[in-house]
Each structure stands twice: as structure tokens, then as C-alpha cells.
């Protein structure tokens, strides 16, 4: 399950943000995840709950996910279109020669931190 690796990477980014900012702890993080990454939301949430506990800096950090639905542009006719994870063919001309515009995102949008009292 590659969600564990994803969460591990996100948490280490969150931790370095907290220490870089001299903050007390992380309160929340927002991720943008494209459908084409095939991240399973339940596995992601499970991995998050397990791994965030390992460090007091992230123990109360709440995960928010923005889902990005796939969109492509057709190389044959230039049409751009939304689609699901399986139907990549151009609806305008039927070509399979398309380029993905959105849907593979796996980005940290923002990290919310609590400032230190000092
Ligand atoms: Zn087309």
C-alpha cells in the first residue's frame, strides 16, 4: 500500500515546516490528490492516523484532501475534456492520443501550524 509512503513523506515535510517556522506543532495539512494516483482514501486516512501519532509535533494534525478529477487534451483535435480514471479516449473525435492535464497531482497545498508561545 503506497499510501504509507505518501503519508510518511507528507509528515516529514510537515515536521520540517514546523521546526523551520519555530512553531509549536502542526494543526492541519491540506493535500491535493488526483484520481489517477489511485490513492485509496481509507488507506490514506488509516496510515495518517497511525503515523501522525509517532511525533507530538503532528499527533493532532488533521488531514484534509482535495480530490482532483482527471482532465486531458486530445493531440489529434485539440479538444480538452474531463474523464474518469479509465476512459481516456477523446469524446470529440475518438482518438486515444491524449495528454493528461490534471489527475496526477499529489501536492501539499498548505500546512497550518500553531505558533510557539515564546
Ligand atoms: Zn479529439
Q: What are the SSEs and their pairings?
A:
Layout (H helix, E strand, L loop, with lengths): L2 H19 L3 E10 L6 H12 L9 E7 L2 E4 L5 E3 L15 E5 L3 E9 L4
Parallel strand pairs: 1-2
Antiparallel strand pairs: 1-6, 3-4, 3-5
Helix pairs in contact: 1-2
The site of zinc ion has 8 residues, from loops.
Please report the distance between the alpha carbons of the first and last residues: 41 Å
Give the fraction of residues assigned to helices: 25-40%
Q: Which consecutive residue ranges, at least 5 long each, have pLDDT under 50?
A: none
Helix-strand string = HEHEEEEE
The geometry reads as elongated
Quickly count the helices.
2
Please provide the count of β strands.
6
Which fold name is given in CATH as the topology of the domain at 3-69 and 102-114?
Answer: hypothetical protein PF0899 fold
C-alpha Rg (nearest Å): 18 Å
Q: Indicate the proportion of strand residues.
A: 25-35%
Largest sheet, in brief, is: 3 strands, mixed
* Content-based structural category: alpha+beta
CATH-level-2 architecture of the domain at 3-69 and 102-114? 2-Layer Sandwich
Mean pLDDT, nearest integer? 95
Strand order of the largest sheet: 2-1-6
CATH class of the domain at 3-69 and 102-114: Alpha Beta
The distinct bound ligands, ions and cofactors come out as: zinc ion
